[in-house]
Amino acid sequence: MNLAMPKGKGKVLLVDDDGTLRALYVDVLEREGLQVDQAVEGKEGLEKAKQGGYDLVLLDFLLPGLEGTQILKELKENPPQKANGPIVMLTNSDQVEVIEKCKALGAAGAIIKSTVVPDQLVQRIQGYLKDQHKG
Questions:
Q1: C-alpha atoms less than 13 angstroms from C-alpha of 66 in its C-beta half-sphere
Q2: pTM of the entire structure?
Q3: pLDDT tens-digit profile of 1-17?
Q4: Which CATH number fits domain 11-129: 3.40.50.2300, 3.30.830.10, 2.60.40.1470, 2.60.40.770?
């Protein structure tokens, strides 16, 4: 599994309060050579996202403090000085309304956590990073 970018390139922000899932995602992403910053709750995630410079942001929908939609709204209204790549929502909901609401606020898409295995996660992230680095 090779990502679309050279190994060792790419910075991902992972915002998720589920410690087990976060550890799994970090392991998978770091094995692909990506640098992963983590945040456990919404306010911390927003602060890091506002610093900018991430190639990809993986943002949980339900977080303590600020929910994912609140973070999306804040980033849309007050973009970071150093732009981030696509924001992909992490959710356990496959409700179209939830995903559409996130897209309306600027999310590039969503990954339904309960249906994705690590290989699929890498493939999905590869697609987002490839789109990000076109041109």
A1: 18
A2: 0.90
A3: 444 444 447 899 999 99
A4: 3.40.50.2300
